Amino acid sequence: MTTMTLNDRSIEVNEEGFLVNPDDWTEEIAQDIAFKEDIGELNDEHWKVIRFMRGDFKANGKVPTIRRMKTAGGVPVKDIYRLFPKGPAKKAAKIAGLSKPEGCV
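and the corresponding structure tokens:
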């Protein structure tokens, strides 16, 4: 494991940059990660996805897939791809402070 400085804090991350401990996450850290991932400033649409992912993870113990974000989270797939281009499930999970979703390369 290694550490990354996010929002002026040293946070433990894995070799791919995912937070090791989801409890280290804050909204400020999410914004820092979004800039590092070339997403830019997070807006209300981003936060809807991020908050759904964190809540669903807390309730089910698994990082939600894109299909689950669509069906249970109510976010159309095309919007997820627009909000988190080039690897939407992986980028959204990283910004949400969660581990890489199962099935992501």
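(Above: one complete record from the training split.) Residues 2-95 form one domain.
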